TrEMBL record:
SUPFAM superfamilies: FMN-linked oxidoreductases. Belongs to the dus family. The lineage of its organism: Bacteria, Pseudomonadati, Pseudomonadota, Alphaproteobacteria, Hyphomicrobiales. It comes from Metarhizobium album. It is an enzyme of class 1 (oxidoreductase). Keywords: Flavoprotein, FMN, NADP, Nucleotide-binding, Oxidoreductase, RNA-binding, tRNA processing, tRNA-binding. NCBIfam families: nifR3_yhdG (TIGR00737). The keyword Nucleotide-binding applies. The active site is at residue 115. It catalyses: a 5,6-dihydrouridine in tRNA + NAD(+) = a uridine in tRNA + NADH + H(+); a 5,6-dihydrouridine in tRNA + NADP(+) = a uridine in tRNA + NADPH + H(+). Its cofactor is FMN. This is tRNA-dihydrouridine synthase. The keyword Nucleotide-binding applies.
Length: 341
């Protein structure tokens, strides 16, 4: 459990903890982000020291139906612990998908009740389940019953400001066998607007004894310690701050970030790993968001025509060469980075 406020230091973020019987090497977790935390991204985040990395959301019914995309999202490629996040609305499919995940190497199964995307909530999954706690509990019970590995739960404060029911759902989830809860400090209706309410997460801490992870707007080590202090959580989860910086979760946990001169090589390695994972035709399209994040963070002064050439290029080797040139040229970096370089 989280120590008293006056003992919260960076050493706490670097300390291990456990999810059930599964050891976790530190307390800074990479958030599952659909379309972002695919296997190439997770491998980089793990190499640079993230405490846990979690798959993109895997649709339970599609996994049982043996779709190519769901199996691609399931892959762990030897990353341990392997955490698979499942989404769905029907207990049967969630249980069956959990069995498949565990049979294929999942050390932890996470249930998605936090995704705010309309295409997910429109199918009454993700954070939409927080409007139907009894249904949500049936999914939790089916998932826990289906596997022997720990099952965890990720959700928001509630659907909207009039239904902040995360503490009650968390309490019932713990009784049903959930072994860790993650709370994003916003409601579904907030999406990612405004600031996450770190204080509101405290009510979930008061409702459960299992480990609690706090999520939302964590960018700096100071943020990480402050969200722990205000929420009483045992660990932090970081998502959008890692976009364009797959090493960022590890850095928050005390690992060294790459030097400015190494970033181009990491970005190109990331791009090539995506080419290998997806095949060139698919990867070029999937990689563009990542290339954009690298350029926004480390080459914000890149001329528009040069950025367009990278972002719309259809020849992989040309894109890789232009990306490396752009990130290696510190004249395109922000003023503080130019001075550091």
């Amino acid at each position: 459990m989280c120590p008293k406020d006056d003992h919260l230091t960076s050493a706490f973020l670097a300390a291990p903890f456990e999810v059930g019987s599964v050891p976790v090497r530190n307390r800074v977790i990479l958030a599952p982000m659909s379309g972002v935390t695919d296997l190439p991204f997770r491998q980089l985040a793990w190499r640079y020291g993230a405490g846990l990395v979690v798959t993109e959301m895997v649709a339970s019914r599609e996994l049982v139906g043996n779709t190519q995309e769901s199996w691609a999202r399931l892959k762990g490629a030897g990353l341990k612990p392997h955490v698979v996040q499942l989404a769905g609305r029907e207990a049967y499919w969630m249980g069956e998908a959990a069995r498949i995940a565990a049979d294929n190497g999942a050390d932890i199964v996470d249930i998605n009740m936090g995704c705010p995307a309309k295409k997910v909530t429109g199918g009454y999954s993700g954070s939409a389940l927080m409007r139907e706690p009894d249904l949500a509990l049936s999914l939790i019970e089916a998932t826990v019953k289906a596997v022997s590995v720990p099952v965890t739960l990720k959700m928001r404060l509630g659907w909207d400001e009039n239904s902040l029911n995360a503490p009650e759902i968390a309490r019932r989830a713990e009784e049903a066998g959930i072994q860790l809860v993650t709370i994003h400090g916003r409601t579904r209706m907030q999406f990612y607007e405004g600031r996450a309410d770190w204080d509101a997460i405290r009510a979930v801490r008061d409702a459960v004894r299992i480990p609690l992870i706090a999520n939302g707007d964590v960018d700096t080590p100071e943020d990480a310690l402050e969200i722990l202090r205000r929420s009483g959580a045992d660990a932090v989860m970081v998502g959008r701050a890692c976009q364009g910086r797959p090493w960022h979760a590890g850095w928050l946990a005390g690992h060294a970030a790459p030097a400015r001169g190494e970033i181009a090589a990491i970005a190109v390695e990331h791009y090539r790993a995506m080419l290998e994972f997806y095949g060139e035709h698919v990867a070029i399209r999937h990689a563009r968001k990542h290339l954009g994040w690298y350029l926004e963070r480390f080459a914000p002064g890149l001329p528009a025509d040069a950025k367009v050439a990278i972002m719309t290029g259809k020849e992989a080797e040309t894109v890789a060469r232009l990306l490396q040139q752009a990130l290696n040229d510190t004249s395109f970096a922000s003023a503080p980075e130019r001075e550091a370089a």
